[in-house]
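pls design
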């Protein structure tokens, strides 16, 4: 059920429809709204936004997503000892001691455990796991109770400016906790905390990301000092990375990848809280440049620490990038109401996310690539720490940030699957098996269950359970990739004007037992990736050749690991090498030569290898293409250098990207071949 506080948060938002898209007009002024759960009255600021999140307390996962979360809970998220330092510490419940006298800087351990805490808390809420929730709330209680005399949180952290960054991350923990509990102490503590900030602190390095929390508190309190400082800090451009000038120009961006993902949301949020379209235009231009220069076929910017770009397709990205980029794209979705942002979120979450972790959620990569044909303790093909452990599947890594951030990806996705538009409209924003419970305007209790095998199938059924009939404006997305759509209400065809890349709203009185069925047409596509090769998609899924592999436990002690080893049995470090051919090129001419193969038996976990409900079959040919120095994934061969080995065309089976550990996703093209997307 949607609580009164969440309803009142939106009482100044008036939604209107523009065709099949959703737009918003916001009434001016502020209004008061009491929170019956806390007795606190909030004075809320206007917010120029189309959709709102915060429905985590009413949302539950089902089907394969629930299985993913359960595996996450029984895997690394539920076993911090396997993650090693600093996750096997007290988290934010007091001082986190250094791992060694020389390792573990003052702020770093708090950043990483804040990532982990966010994922652990949301996972605990979704799975009703009281142990997970308590572990995080113990840290929340300590943090709230131990502000300094001025109200600044995190007083056990070194007071260098760097210490502000962990609070930026921990803000998301407090936000999730508040959305679930309505605990007014969170608002009061963060309000006092942010008022201790000086402008010169906020406008420095990643401390600029404080704007995310400052604007949220501005929304809750109406305190314009926070808005004013946020605007001044961002417009000053002193934080050096994604500054206004960089957002505005057409140059390729040069900065740390995670920093880009984190800072990209700031002009979007400034637009949301001011209505100044200049901010939105700057954010959109920065995102356009990222798509042009950096985003890989799995939907995530290439950043082997720095934004290295996608001009070389074997460039990789951090696992952190998956979490932070999709979180930021969520703000693009909410602020604009445009379906394309949901499409981009799904692409990254359904492909890059499971592709960077083992299917049992017991090991992850720090760097992952769309083409990786070896993953050992010394096979990292990136210029950054070339030959190190960073591309191996391990429970813990040299730098621990990805080992913390990986826990956020799917819980954050689920928390934004369902959104609100205005006071009444329920939005199925991101797809997958799930449900939401809410109360209609007439007081009727309602549960909407989304039954689907999506993204492996385009059929989505919405089941309505109602305590009594009630009017519910219900909005759902037509992805850009879906050229054909059919709908039925209680088995009868429903004629609705639906355009790819828009939201459709059905505004009617729903009855108990109503069934709304939406069938999204999925057709395979052959996508030319710059001048390097082609990759293949079906709906939101990217497909890869799963390289036959030999997987052995790696017990080697690597000097770069600072003595960190998994401390839980059953959590292994892996050395994975190819155990068969992978050197294939695409020899087809267009998408008509792609066969879509569907399994009748769709039981089981769809990302387990051999269990995918859908695979693709393409014509391919072996070429001269081998490991670099016998230990690194090689670069893509240039088209005029592709040399066939046999001249024999084979049928090559491709599986969903997320089903693989070793993979070829982008295939070379035979010289003079015509590609028809």
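designed seq:
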């Amino acid at each position: 059920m949607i609580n009164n506080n969440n309803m009142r948060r939106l009482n100044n938002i008036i939604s209107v429809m523009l065709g099949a898209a959703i737009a918003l007009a916001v009434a001016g002024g502020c209004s008061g709204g009491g929170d019956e759960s806390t007795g606190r009255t909030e004075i809320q600021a206007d917010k120029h936004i189309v959709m709102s999140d915060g429905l985590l307390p009413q949302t539950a996962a089902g089907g394969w997503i629930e299985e993913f979360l359960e595996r996450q809970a029984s895997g690394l998220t539920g076993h911090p000892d396997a993650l090693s330092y600093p996750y096997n510490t007290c988290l934010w419940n007091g001082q986190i001691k250094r791992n060694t006298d020389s390792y573990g800087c003052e702020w770093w351990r708090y950043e990483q455990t804040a990532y982990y805490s966010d994922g652990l808390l949301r996972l605990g809420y979704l799975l009703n796991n009281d142990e997970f929730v308590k572990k995080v709330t113990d840290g929340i209680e300590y943090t709230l109770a131990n502000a300094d005399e001025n109200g600044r949180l995190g007083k056990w952290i070194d007071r260098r400016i760097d210490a502000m960054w962990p609070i930026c991350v921990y803000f998301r923990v407090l936000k999730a906790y508040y959305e679930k509990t309505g605990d007014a102490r969170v608002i009061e503590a963060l309000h006092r905390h942010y008022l201790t900030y000086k402008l010169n602190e906020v406008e420095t390095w990643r401390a600029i990301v404080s704007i995310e929390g400052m604007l949220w508190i501005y929304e809750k309190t109406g305190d314009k000092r926070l808005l004013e400082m946020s605007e001044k800090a961002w417009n000053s451009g002193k934080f050096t990375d994604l500054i206004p000038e960089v957002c505005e120009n057409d140059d390729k961006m040069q900065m740390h990848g995670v920093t880009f993902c984190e800072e990209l949301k700031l002009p979007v949020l400034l637009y949301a809280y001011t209505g100044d379209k200049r901010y939105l235009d700057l954010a959109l231009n920065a995102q356009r440049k990222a798509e042009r220069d950096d985003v890989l076929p799995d939907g995530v910017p290439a950043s082997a620490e720095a934004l290295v770009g996608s001009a070389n397709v074997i460039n990789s990205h951090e696992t952190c990038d998956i979490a932070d980029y999709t979180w930021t794209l969520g703000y693009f979705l909410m602020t604009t109401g445009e379906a394309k942002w949901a499409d981009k979120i799904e692409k990254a979450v359904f492909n890059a996310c499971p592709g960077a972790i083992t299917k049992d959620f017991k090991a992850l990569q720090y760097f992952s690539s769309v083409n990786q044909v070896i993953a050992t303790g010394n096979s990292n093909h990136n210029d950054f720490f070339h030959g190190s452990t960073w591309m191996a599947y391990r429970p813990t890594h040299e730098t621990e940030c990805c080992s913390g951030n990986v826990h956020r990806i799917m819980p954050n996705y689920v928390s934004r699957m369902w959104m609100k538009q205005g006071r009444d409209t329920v939005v199925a924003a991101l797809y997958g098996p799930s449900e939401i419970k809410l109360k209609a305007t007439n007081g009727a209790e309602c549960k909407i269950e989304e039954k689907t095998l999506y993204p492996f199938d385009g059929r989505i059924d919405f089941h309505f359970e109602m305590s009594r009939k009630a009017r519910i404006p219900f909005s759902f997305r037509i992805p850009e990739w879906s050229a054909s759509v059919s709908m039925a209400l209680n088995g009868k065809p429903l004629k609705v004007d639906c355009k790819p890349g828009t939201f459709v709203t059905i505004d009617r009185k729903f009855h108990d037992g109503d069934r709304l069925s939406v069938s999204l047409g999925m057709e395979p596509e052959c996508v030319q990736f710059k001048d390097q090769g082609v990759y293949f998609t079906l709906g939101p899924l990217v497909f890869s050749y799963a390289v036959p592999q030999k997987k052995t436990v790696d017990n080697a002690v690597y000097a770069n690991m600072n003595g960190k080893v998994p401390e839980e049995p059953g959590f292994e470090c892996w050395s994975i090498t190819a155990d068969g051919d992978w050197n294939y090129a695409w020899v087809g001419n267009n998408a008509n030569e792609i066969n879509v193969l569907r399994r009748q038996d769709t039981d089981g976990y769809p990302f387990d290898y051999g269990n995918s409900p859908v695979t693709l079959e393409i014509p391919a040919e072996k070429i001269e293409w081998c490991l670099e120095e016998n230990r690194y994934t090689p670069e893509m061969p240039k088209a005029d250098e592709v040399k066939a080995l046999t001249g024999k065309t084979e049928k090559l089976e491709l599986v969903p990207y997320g089903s693989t550990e070793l993979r070829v996703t982008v295939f070379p093209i035979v010289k003079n071949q015509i590609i028809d997307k």
